[in-house]
Design brief:
The protein is built from twelve helices and five strands. The chain is α/β, with parallel strands linked by helices. A hairpin with a 4-residue loop joins strand 2 (142-151) and strand 3 (156-163).
């Protein structure tokens, strides 16, 4: 668990310092990194991700007992002791106690950007505003992760990637695919949450190379990226929850079918007049 914490915060703190804080050796940490993650380790990481998402979704109000109930109701098995320990490690505290402090943690500040999007999810043309986020999908031996980039003009998914970990390459692959599929102009706003992947130097450099303006949700405010939250909700309700996936390859094929065949080209979207994202962009091209 301590090594996992170090891995998840490498972009914010030096490994040497974190090892000293947690009372572990650097050599032990690097040996741990070389080992392939076990199914149990993947399960623990998936619970940690879901816990953080749920904690922020409820505006940091819930403590461990209520968070356990929310996670269990969502089909994520976890115990009170496990959740309490994860909250302690990640510095998550319910803000219903007298000793709750609102000072931002250092790892939540490094590499962050202003909220340029400001919940304005409307765009006047393609490639004016993009939003991105990560979600997780259960497979037989744990979890896989999906990163998505959406163009807010048409709500079309223009880039996505899947992997069995949540390293920065996941969001980089999704972003690079979006860039390859579109005509990017300087000033493009690319919005995300404050996840460590989006604060990583490699990701910020990719945005800079395209002269795109990074934008990030305020801390603990999932509604600042509501368009992506809505897409992930639809994806899971309409598609993911109805199927059991054995492997990453199974999940990838299914997500490909949903995004590339159904969602982008067929699904009628209420935000764009009940036409598909592809049709909405086609109509724009004809009028341009």
């Amino acid at each position: 668990m301590k090594y996992a914490f170090i891995e998840g915060h490498r972009d914010a703190y030096r490994v040497t310092k974190m090892c000293r804080w947690l009372g572990v050796s650097r050599s032990g940490y690097y040996l741990w990194r070389k080992r392939a993650p076990s199914a149990r380790a993947k399960q623990r990481e998936a619970v940690r991700v879901a816990l953080n998402d749920t904690y922020h979704a409820f505006n940091r109000i819930y403590g461990a007992p209520r968070l356990v109930r929310e996670l269990n109701d969502a089909g994520i098995s976890c115990s009170l002791n496990h959740v309490a320990k994860l909250m302690q490690i990640d510095g998550l505290r319910a803000r219903n106690g007298k000793d709750f402090k609102f000072e931002p943690a250092a790892e939540a500040i490094a590499g962050t950007a202003e909220n340029l999007l400001a919940r304005n999810f409307q765009a006047s043309q393609p490639n004016e505003k993009w939003v991105s986020d990560i979600t997780y999908i259960q497979v037989d031996d744990g979890w896989v992760y999906l990163a998505v980039v959406m163009d807010l003009y048409s709500r079309q998914i223009i880039g996505w990637a899947m992997a069995d970990d949540m390293k920065v390459d996941l969001v980089l692959d999704a972003f690079n695919r979006a860039v390859a599929n579109r005509e990017v102009r300087p000033g493009l706003i690319v919005h995300s949450d404050r996840g460590v992947q989006y604060r990583a130097w490699e990701y910020r450099k990719a945005l800079e190379s395209c002269e795109a303006a990074p934008s990030m949700s305020r801390k603990g405010n999932c509604w600042d990226n509501a368009a992506m939250e809505s897409f992930f909700s639809r994806l899971k309700v309409e598609w993911i929850y109805a199927t059991e996936y054995g492997t990453l390859s199974d999940a990838y094929s299914s997500v490909f079918e949903y995004i590339e065949i159904f969602y982008n080209r067929m699904r009628r979207h209420s935000a764009i007049g009940y036409v598909s994202p592809a049709q909405y962009e086609q109509e724009y091209a004809q009028c341009a």
